[in-house]
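Researcher: Structure for this, please.
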Amino acid sequence: MIILHEENETKFTSLGLGTLKDAISCSITEKLDDEFTLEMEYPINGANYDKIAIGRILFTKVNPYDNMQAFRIYSITKTIKGTVTVDAVHVSY
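Model: Predicted structure, token format:
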């Protein structure tokens, strides 16, 4: 499950602005001592498409073993397929 939160969220104890259950794909790349990024493809007719914005936070599991992690959206690109590609970087505390 991918949960969308406001940009100032720090506790992640609620469903925030909503879940992004319509996501077509979501992949996370983690390089040792380097980048930790998320890339998601989401349909423009998805339930919470209008809430996706630069600066907001995506909260999701990165694998079956670790806790959920927060990623800040830094890029949203429309595609010709009626979707957007959302890029986010890990929020470091």
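Researcher: Any notable elements?
Model: The two ends are 22 Å apart (CA to CA). The chain is about 0% helix and 45% strand.
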